[in-house]
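Pasting as-is:
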Amino acid sequence: MAPKDPISRLNARVIGICIAAALGGFLFGFDTSVINGAVDALSEEFNLGPGLTGFAVSSALIGCAVGAWFAGPLANRFGRVPVMLVAAVLFLVSALGSGLAIGVWDLILWRVVGGLGVGAASVIAPAYIAEVSPAGVRGRLGSLQQLAIVSGIFVALLSDALFANVAGGAAETFWLGLESWRWMFLAEALPAVLYGLFAFRLPESPRFLVARGDVDRAAQVLYDFTGVERVNLKIQEIRDTLDSEHRSSLRDLLGPLMGLKPIVWIGIALSVFQQFVGINVIFYYSTTLWRSVGFEESDALTVSVITSVTNIVVTIVAILLVDRVGRRPMLLVGSTGMAVSLALMAVSFSFATAVEGADGTVSAELGQPWATVALLAANAFVVFFGATWGPLVWVLLGEMFPNRIRAGALAVAAAAQWAANFTVSTTFPWLSGIGLSFVYGLYAAMAALSLIFVWRFVRETKGLELEEMTDSLSRR
């Protein structure tokens, strides 16, 4: 029997460890979206008003921002893999605590704990994947993070729908005397345990190992997993960019442009724009949103699941295209498509009429053809986001920073992303009181601004080695 092709063997191994690392993204998506199907039941269980409802939904994002901020420095000190293991424990604790919460503030506490894990995973997974991936396929492997995120969103929404449908509603008792919405949270314990088991077997990042002086282990990882044949030359390139005479810290991010290096500001802006287009309104509030325009709870949950499936499909399309088309062109197309689809949603909801329910709450009612237009536009928005800004921002954040500041810069950018996510998610219930047409018009304006930003400031990184990344603001 002929020996196996070493390149195929190595490619399979690097794909395997990237998939294992991306499981953090699965939990990222699951943890942040699982509350979707529980929002209305939570509001009823704990008698919440719109403000506290919005805070309960977005409270995890506080932990996300904190977890992202500290993950970079911790990863530089202890390694990428130990931080993944800590994140897995946080996910598990959050799942159990949230499912067994006795009050809204108790629930919020456990959601914040889970957020710490999400924030850490959002920083470590893209950095790790970028650091172990060959340049020619780094975009595809980096996109696995977003594929894992949208898969986590899909599984969360699907499990929400299953629990609610079997129990007869999210607020109904399901099993062991616990309401269905509690099992929505408890279900996260299984993937959390699996993530910890997979992370435990991952090799450490070769760039971290070189920075710590463990050259032998770094060489082994580069040869066995990344497929590098001229290992000594690669290690020397890594040494040259790491400037390992001093320990990396957040001080290395300081620069002349309002206190930070230009490339760090680009990463922050990409993160903020990714959230300010309002994508997580679709995934956090979609069930409530579609119920408000005439869908029953089971139908609204089904529509949310369909939307998440669409997100998975277009993310796979992005994985196939990113290393062929490039990052920058795809972002430009995505910004244009999002701006148009969000504008259509704004127009559609301008025809909504206010209806007062039996409990005194006021909701929007959308007649035909605008209900159909709004549904199609919302899914078009998901398509454009999922095929471009969803995966590619994580790809860029994982690869655009120089080696010596990557973990720290990614931590700052990810923290900014979670802060922006928190802002959008918390303000949506209040802004929707002004009018959904106003809200989606605002998100459309953000999408249009993102187009201008990418055109002016974002450079192409397709095919570049990580050692070629600089602090430069200019695009190629």
